[in-house]
Amino acid sequence: MAAMHSRGAERLLGVAGSPHLLLVEDDPGDAFLFEELLTEAQPGLRITVATTLREAVDALRPEIQCVIVDLSLPDAQGLDALREVRTHAPATAVLVLTGLADAHVGVEAVAAGAQDYLVKQDVDGALLTRAISYAIERKRADESERQLVEARALSRENARLERGLLPVPILNDGTLRHHTRYRPGRDRALLGGDFHDTVETADGSVHAVIGDVSGHGADEASLGVRLRMAWRTLVLSGHTGGRLLDTLDTVLQHERWAEEIFTTVCMVTIAPDRRSARVYQAGHPRPLFFTPGGVEPLPDEPRGPALGLLPGADWPAVDLELGDSWGLMLYTDGLIEGRAGDGGYLDLPGLMELAKIAHGDGRRGDVLIDGLIAEAERLNGGILSDDLAVLLLSRGDG
Fold this sequence. Notes:
This protein is of the alpha+beta class. Helices cover 36% and strands 24% of the residues. The strands form 4 sheets. The protein has a 5-stranded parallel beta sheet with strand order 2-1-3-6-7, sandwiched between helices. It has a 5-stranded antiparallel beta sheet with strand order 8-17-16-13-14, covered by helices on one side. A 5-stranded antiparallel beta sheet has the order 9-10-11-12-15, covered by helices on one side. The longest helix is centred in the middle third of the chain and has 41 residues, at 125-165. It is elongated. The chain starts with 19 loop residues before the first strand and ends with a strand.
């Protein structure tokens, strides 16, 4: 190799600590000159030298930030050395060295995945250190872009999966209005541990459910989906009331991963004439009943425990006369567990006050639900952190 001239030393740009480089060069003279140029630029620099491709592969370590590889080695020619290094260290920057007559090979190497190339005869200390610094930064940028692309692809795939798991109501009665809101507490998620569903069966009855799996996270979301699907299957196969909850309780006990996992549920069956309903509460917050005359919560009793707590438990029903015009709002505790601005929690009394104001102002359907959530967040001083689900069924002006 022709003598390499130094125009002055430059430290490795943007490389923190004591950088570790791997130099793959079979010519002892060239290797010595490269080491001299680099250590002059940055004293304390760690340089491992390999004279063959086999030695280079054995010397590769996660802490090596850049591999400087000669494309003319005893056991590799052309781009073979580059391919091997990239196979064994895909996250490490690679800078290739070529001779003056082989500069075109350097261009091919960059196209094959190297971060840059240098012609040996033109190298000096400043050029070498800059090239290494830029190769490392370029590799970091490439890795960040790759990870971002993979994350976006995974996010889109997860979103498609989660959208496919969200319920599509089976509801044919045009006299009923059906409104829902669903918001998981987990960042960038579509599903949480809350679930809801609505099914109209062949006899004209409309069945609705809302539930809340204890805890937060992907496991709880998965369990919520399984319970919702089990509920829908049971309803479509003719199960109702306490018998349905008994079976759902059994499903929960078999599907959960720990005995302390429980699920609160509120279930409503609306009669075919739409003038009465039967409500089952299993440890769940009390629904709100809207009429033209106002808003009130359903009675606190009778009610049963949450699913998964007491084997052989009983879940009594509340029979409700609806009238001609009504609304039933089922919700999970994510709506009422935010702060109320005075150090306490919103809870049912606070939600009732908000609902009375909204209903008195003539808010119905989506406007009613969105207004209640917005007011709960305003009192909380920010977004509600828990999973949140709301299901509103209404008829007439209720």
